[in-house]
Amino acid sequence: MKQLLSFFTLLIGFGATFASKPPDSTSLADTLHPLKDVAYAAQLDSIIQCYYEDLISLSEPLYSPEELKLSDSMPVFTSEVYQERLSIMDKRTPFDLSYNNTVEAFIHLYVSKKRSLSASSLGRSQLYFPGFEEALDRHNLPLELKYLAVVESGLNPKARSRAGATGLWQFMYRTGKNFGLNVNSYVDERCDAEKSTEAACQYLGYLYNLFGDWNLALAAYNCGEGRVASAIRRSGGKRNYWEIYPYLPRETRGYVPAFIAVNYMFEHASDHGIYATPIANKSYEVDSVHLQHAATFEQISEIVDLDIETISELNPVYRMNVIPAYDNHRVLYLPKDKIQIWVANESAIESLLKTEAAQAEVAETPKPQEVTYYTVRSGDYLGKIANRYGCSVRQIQDWNNMRGTSLRVGQKLAIHAKEPTQTKVEASKKPVVSQSGNNVYYTIRAGDTLWDIASARGVSLEDLKRWNSDVNFNRMKPGQKIIVDKK
């Protein structure tokens, strides 16, 4: 049976006393920051900062310029309104959606300070929530658990914390392996929406069966079963989240309040003037096909005329922008109209991929007797040298008995290739380079990548980005000109 947390329980949990807020506020600042300059507020700030600083996905600025302009017109609600709304929501869910000042602080985080994150989460939910709900229903778990992925990653499948937790559900490497998620050089199934959601359902079901309480299960998902069990022991055997709250790790204290706040935000986003950021592809607009032969995102982009950024967004499981097409790592997700193109030409496409794979295999196997010695220069790294000679980083490591990727200036590397190979940009029949003033310009062609252009011109990616600070390299189009050198 759910237990509602009283205000006095919260006082005991923090070991301090403070006054509750007045029911009415006349100032936006007073309403959004009711505990400013109070010791309790400092503790909340510490908890919130500790919790969110580890999530790469939450890197947006506190306010966008548009939000700053509209800040004076943000809807303002009293604590009683939040309490009433949560009370209504609480009756419809097995979770304890209790109101207290900590929960309200996290609500303010999502509806004021992190409005852009909330809007993008609302948008991304149109791609991910249908799959989440299907999996949760299949495991007979509460559908509200879908909001946990918002707390974990902001629905960014490539989110990675400083501790190494990765994906929509932020699995650590070992935990992911324990629940069947494969991680290797080519794939990271923690970034696979379907497989990681299946693993999350199994883990959450296990935690609930272990503790018999959803709040405790959520806390354990964040910090591990052992730490929650330890907090229960240190509290004298208490089994209520808010009663063991002071004994939990600092970042975990903000976890359940954040989960409650996200539930609130999704239910009442429009009341706060927050609306979904439009996304290119909703769940029903995406389909998949299984490949028989390996393919790079660049090849796929050329075949179906779709930008690599979109392919990467829909296929985050592949770490090197390559679908290796072995075992069950063959699935390619694309917008439905592009899938139709692929299916209609599948035989020809697979034949092309097979031919190009065979050619690449031959190209990456230079005769061992043909040795070139390359002297490492300042700014060199293995990827750059490998691209220059048309081989792989792994081959250079094997040829030189290297375990890592570190290089030192002056070091000599044995390269089993005749001459440096030309990149796609260099090999173009008609180089499109022009000079105007002190700038040298290159005209983008279909299939070009930033890496190809930088390698062809012998410049670094950092220089290209610095010279072209006004260019969105994720949206480059054929015919567009960029600066590739300074004279």
CATH class of the largest domain: Mainly Alpha
General shape? elongated
Ends: how far apart? 74 Å
Domains (count): 4
Which fold name fills CATH's third level, the topology of the largest domain?
A: Lysozyme
How would a crystallographer describe the biggest sheet? Answer: 3 strands, antiparallel
Tally of extended strands? 9
Q: Which architecture name of the largest domain does CATH use?
A: Orthogonal Bundle
Question: Which percent range describes the beta-strand content?
Answer: 5-15%
Query: What's the pLDDT, averaged over the residues?
Result: 79
Total helix count? 23
Low-confidence stretches: 1-38, 51-72, 363-369, 421-430
Query: How would you classify the helix and strand content by structural class?
Result: mainly alpha
Order of strands in the sheet with most strands: 7-8-9
Radius of gyration: 27 Å
Briefly summarize what is shown.
This protein has 487 residues and is mainly alpha-helical. The protein has helices at residues 7-14, 28-32, 39-52, 65-70, 79-90, 101-113, 115-138, 148-153, 173-178, 193-211, 214-223, 225-234, 241-244, 250-253, 255-268, 297-304, 308-314, 336-344, 346-363, 382-389, 393-399, 450-457, 461-467, and strands at residues 286-290, 295-296, 322-323, 331-335, 372-375, 412-415, 433-436, 439-443, 481-486. The chain has a 3-stranded antiparallel β-sheet with strand order 7-8-9. A two-stranded antiparallel sheet has the order 1-4.
